[in-house]
Amino acid sequence: MAGEFWLNDEQWAAIEPLLPPHQSGAHRKDDRWIISGIIHVLKTGCRWQDCPACYGPPTTIYNRFHRWSARGIWRRLFAALVENGSSDIHMIDSTTAKAHRSAAGGKGGPNLQAIGRSRGGRTTKIHAVVDGCGRPVALQITPGQRGDAPIAADLIAPLPPSLLCAADTAYDSDALRRFLIERGTQPVIPNNPTRKHTQPFDPHAYKRRNIIERSFCRLKDWRRIATRYDKLAANFASACYLAAIVIWWT
């Protein structure tokens, strides 16, 4: 069938040692086929039940994705496989994904499941840090109305310091600027028009910020990320982690 996704030998060699060991009981379906099927569904946006039979039973494919999301396995794969990237510059920004009606009804309510209301309606916001090549090195999801600057420091803190950090005016806060400078990173953030005391700004370095916009375009080529269908925040975040891993490979 045209359009199928299959992990190649190099990709599988990187993933296989990081997977949970087989446990006693019923034999686990072939991990390589199942993970390839999961990625196929996330990329094409089809329903789980419509996943091509060549990957295995659709119920098995969904259950593997859901259960490993709950256990944090996809997040750990992302952390292990995605290297820290080039250290000369990091870029931070966010994008929103509109929540489909099928995403409603998650346990604990929409706010707990990272679905909020913004200008675009019911949305989830994807916060990301990318390296100089546009490869995601940190990801987090929040309700769509959540501000960008308040979570920026927590997203950047686990990463090794870069020489520069580029962001738009939504990140123009004194607290974030101090945080970056204390790490030895030069903020490349334009001054908000409402700022009384302007800060130094390098417009030449800021031109590279378009890299993260292109990275979001690649992320949203995955139809289950461009539109959120998952009720659970953990599942949608896992879809973002898997997409980021494939972006690193391609």
From TrEMBL:
Tagged with keyword rRNA-binding: no
Transmembrane parts of this sequence: 232-249
Domain of life: Bacteria
Gene Ontology biological-process annotations: DNA transposition
Keywords: Membrane, Transmembrane, Transmembrane helix
Transposase IS4-like domain ranges (all copies): 90-245
Keyword Amino-acid biosynthesis: no
NCBIfam families: transpos_IS5_3
Protein name: IS5/IS1182 family transposase
Species annotation: Pleomorphomonas diazotrophica
